[in-house]
Amino acid sequence: MATETVSDRIALARADLSIPEAAAGLAFGAAIAFTLVFLQEPLAHDAMHNFRHAAGITCH
Amino acid sequence: MIVDYFRRGVVAGVATGLAYGLYLVFVGNPLSEYLHEAQHDHGHDHGHGHSHDHGHAVSETTTAIVSAGSGVLWAILLGGLFATALYFLEPALPGTDAVGPYVLAAAGFVTVSGVPWLVLPPAAPGAEQLYTIEARLGIYVALVGLGAVVSAAAIGGYRRTASRSRLLGVTVGAVPLLATAIVLPLVAPSIVTHPDLPGDLVAAYQALAVLTQAGIWFGLAFTVDRLRGRDRRRTATDRTRAGHSNVA
After folding, report:
1. Number of folded domains in chain B?
2. Quick one: B248 exposed, middle or buried, by C-beta within 10 A (0-12, 13-18, 19+)?
3. Residue A44 lies in a domain
4. What is the pLDDT of residue B50?
5. What is the pLDDT averaged over residues B154-171?
6. Separation of alpha carbons B204 and B124, rounded Å
7. What is the tens place of the pLDDT at every residue in B34-78?
8. Average pLDDT rounded to a whole number, residues B217-237
9. Is B53 a member of any domain?
10. Nearest alpha-carbon partner for B37 in B149, B125, B159
11. Does residue A60 sit within a domain?
């Protein structure tokens, strides 16, 4: 365990996860990140307005 | 194993997110609304147009609820990212594995918030912006990349030199962080300004953003570390039990 390296972890993750599972996880994360940080559609943007300011996220 | 990390990260995100959601309900929302209102009056007195006319597409209640919910979701997103990164990067982090999550959380804060804020500081409602939103989002993404490089350089510098002396390690590790914190604000133009707000108020608003985002990362590291301790104790008891039943 003590001599484990980053590439060991990558190899282990490859064995543990199928490609669709990894893709699903990434897509889910990307969807949340896009909604919270990048979505500028006016209704969504205004509804999240206070959160973006309070969290210091770049806005309008 | 990656699934266990991810599960703990999401649970930590929910726990931290609920706390952060409460902060938004009781502090973030009222304060943002207040600043918004204050400048509406102010702006009209002086008759200059402000960038906030579009703040009425939805009701204040909707904004309050969605903003609090976004806060919860934000912590869950960071929790998932944090735990996945912890799984992959843990072998490269300094210290025992109880320290690792805190080091990575600090790196996460520097990457996602700290370095980008040196150029694009948290803006109070009514801030005037030098560039368009697309340009600023582009700058933000680039700064997140820079933040990751700076964090990696700091951790790498510490690891390479700490075996000789811990003090030397800390000094070498601090160099990239300090250099970025000093140089970046000097070379970057001031993109965000608050012409209609007193400086103290803006400083307080920004300090709250810094403290609460740092708090989220600390909460994630703390919860992930605790959950892992609990999981390990559980596996240990299961094993002992299984062992006893075999003997009996």
Report:
1. 1
2. exposed
3. yes
4. 44
5. 94
6. 10
7. 888 887 765 544 444 444 444 567 888 888 999 999 999 999 999
8. 95
9. no
10. B125
11. no
* Residue B221 falls inside a structural domain: yes
Q: How far apart are CA B143 and CA B201, in angstroms?
A: 26
Per-residue DSSP letter, B92? G
Q: Do B66 and A58 touch (CB under 8 A)?
A: no
Task: Give the ranges where chain B is alpha helix by DSSP (H).
Answer: 2-23, 29-46, 60-89, 100-109, 115-119, 133-161, 166-187, 199-247
- Residue B81 belongs to some domain of the structure: yes
Asked if the Cβ–Cβ distance from A55 to B1 is below 8 Å, we say no
Quote the domain boundaries for residue A16.
6-55
Closest in B27, B68, B87 to A9, CB measured: B87
* Predicted TM-score (pTM) of this structure: 0.90
Query: Structural domain of residue B8, as residue ranges?
Result: 1-40+62-238
Question: Could you say which DSSP state residue B91 is in?
Answer: G
Q: What is the domain count for chain A? A: 1
* Cα distance between residue B193 and residue B195, in whole Å: 6
Q: What is the ipTM of this complex?
A: 0.92
For chain B, give the longest Cα–Cα distance. Answer: 86
In this structure, what token pair is assigned to residue B237? 């008891």
Whether residue A32 lies inside any domain: the answer is: yes
CA-CA-CA-CA torsion for B116, B122, B125, B129, nearest 10 degrees?
-40
Size of interface A-B (CB pairs under 8 A): 131
**Total length of chain A:** 60
Cross-chain Cβ contact B208/A49 below 8 Å: no
